[in-house]
Design goal:
Elements lengths: L11 H9 L8 E3 L7 H9 L3 E3 L14 H4 L2 H12 L2 H5 L5 H21 L1
Parallel strand pairs: 1-2
């Protein structure tokens, strides 16, 4: 898992560049919402031999299909964010520094993973 903090007014695709710049294992698909519907993101994912599963924006002139059965799996990611926000410290961001906030996100993620392994 990779986490980055961007300013609140920053667009989603700026965060995409931060996360994908790292040497992470090659994904087989990218499940994302409409905010990531940009030709540059689609090209980047296709260059990495992965399938972009991103619904198109209503303003897109060139129509692009999406695999709906794969897109439904994005619900798992949204539920993961919801569980992270159940930790009050994550939801309200009590920490003063970005490092301590990201550290607590990592700790909360590990706790959720251990809980998942025990079931």
């Amino acid at each position: 898992m990779r986490t980055e903090i961007t300013p609140g007014q920053t667009s989603d695709y700026v965060g995409f560049d931060l996360v994908m710049a790292d040497n992470l294992p090659a994904p087989s698909a990218l499940l994302a919402d409409r905010a990531y519907d940009a030709d540059s993101i689609r090209r980047t994912i296709e260059q990495r031999n992965a399938l972009p599963v991103i619904p198109m924006r209503k303003s897109r002139k060139r129509r692009v299909g999406v695999d709906r059965s794969l897109y439904r799996l994005r619900n798992l990611v949204e539920r993961c964010f919801n569980r992270l926000k159940n930790a009050r410290r994550v939801a309200t961001r009590y920490d003063k520094t970005a490092e301590s906030f990201l550290g607590f996100i990592d700790i909360t993620s590990i706790r959720l993973w251990l809980r998942h392994l025990s079931t």
